[in-house]
Amino acid sequence: MSHAPNDAVAASAIRKVAIRLVPFVALMFFINYLDRTAISFAAPNGMNSDLALSAAQFGFASGIFFLGYILLEVPSNMALHRFGARKWLARIMVSWGVVALLFTWVDSANGLYALRFALGVAEAGFFPGAILFLSLWVPARYRSRILALFYLAQPLTTVIGAPLAASLIQHDGVFFGLAGWRFMFFGVAIPAIVMGIVAWFYLVDRPADARWLSVEEKRWLTEELARESREKSGGDHGRQGLKLAFTNGRVWTLALIYFGFIYGLYALAFFLPTIIGGFEAQFGTRFDLMQKGLITAIPYLPAAIVLYLWSRDATRRGVRSWHIALPAFTGAVSVPLALYMDSPAATVAVITVTACSIFAALPNFWTLPTRFLDGAAAAAGVALINTVGNMAGFSSSYLTGALHDLTGSYTVPMFVVGGLMLMSGILMLAISRVPRPDSGARMPGGVHAH
Asked: Is 374 left (phi over 0), alpha (psi -120 to 50) or beta?
């Protein structure tokens, strides 16, 4: 009974964080992912023909974003650690919003490459910064649930974004004489600039500064997070923390696991609208623009539901290796299986299983790095893992297009996706059996990592 007051304070504090911060940061992520993947909606709806892009050129344009992103990922997250999340995340949003706006007037393949690269530079650090920001507010045992609520923004971006993009594209020549796909770029860029300005005033860097928390809630959160920080092996700062992250074998293994998931995620994100556009030739079906947008959204609504329920189970049990490995193995089988379906409905159904697999694993995956890293090491480690993952963003986009042009189909590209997701599942099972050198505890497997 003596713990009841603390339990009540803890529940109240986490509820307030979930209400005040998570929806706002999730909305930032929603806009981020929409701007990043808007090119996939533009491609089959006039952009590829207007700019004379082949599948490989479109894949390269999609993927070169990640080269710019990778270059500044770790430095950006270190800057966030130094200057504070509020200022840095707001700065990132305004920067990428301005660059995203310029896509409205792109007039060549080379111009598209340059803007995609610049967009990556502008966005660098946002996603790992958002993950780190939420981790600085939420103790580890609540983190899976909070990150799941945040991660819902990603599948919901397509659920909402695909029909939204289709509706904007339908306004062909209506506004300023812009082609529909150009007006779509204009329409999705403005919210990033607005949200970036709002974020400067709305976000708070740490619980101690939150006016909307009671004194008891501030104290509990601050003490709980400080206690966890003392227990971690990575509580070093500055260069020592950076070195710790880059020389930690578990960080690199997690980076490879994330690589497999992100390879699948972006192969799906950038090429699904194009694959759906090909149903007409493959199955003899015809869909209008809005129908194609709605079909593109279909896999992501079940994915959002599965993400929430799977993460809820992980919160209840504690994150286990199978919470991440099982979705990886499921995706490894479903990706190539989609190639052998005999109707659009069956193909989309199997693609839905793939989307569910990827999104079920990702929020639980991101609870792992901050279990054993803290301070500058956590900032660098999370950024490093995300950097390696975004190398998959480039390679999946470019290789999927290039292999399609080379072979004339998506068979080989999708088997590559399946193979890499299989790798992620195997590595997750392997890392769960490796004891932590500092405490002898394992990563989540049969036994919790503490």
From this structure: beta
pLDDT tens sequence across 388-397: 887 888 888 7
pTM value > 0.85: no
Q: Are 269 and 158 in contact (CB under 8 A)?
A: yes
Determine how many CB atoms are found less than 10 A away from the CB of residue 430. Answer: 15
pLDDT at 83 over 70: yes
> Angle at the Cα of 356 (from 354 to 359), degrees rounded to 5?
110
pLDDT at 242: 66
Beta strands in 70-140 (DSSP E): none
Identify the CATH number of the domain defined by range 4-431.
1.20.1250.20
For residues 207 and 225, is the Cβ–Cβ distance under 8 A? yes
Distance, CA of 114 to CA of 149 (rounded, Å): 34
Alpha-carbon distance of 158 to 36, in angstroms, equals 11
What b-and-e string marks burial along 55-66, b requiring 16 or more CB atoms within 10 Å of the CB?
Answer: bbbbbbbbbbbb
pLDDT-above-90 percentage for the chain: 42
d(CA 94, CA 103): 15
Torsion of CA 137, 138, 143, 149, to 10 degrees: -60
Q: What is the pLDDT of residue 441?
A: 43
Q: How far is residue 130's CA from residue 119's CA, in Å, rounded to a whole number?
A: 18
pLDDT of residue 235: 47
How far is Cα 28 from Cα 32, in angstroms, rounded to an integer?
A: 6
Q: What percent of the chain has pLDDT over 70?
A: 92
Domain spans, the chain? 4-431
Query: Which tokens is 272 given?
Result: 């699904």
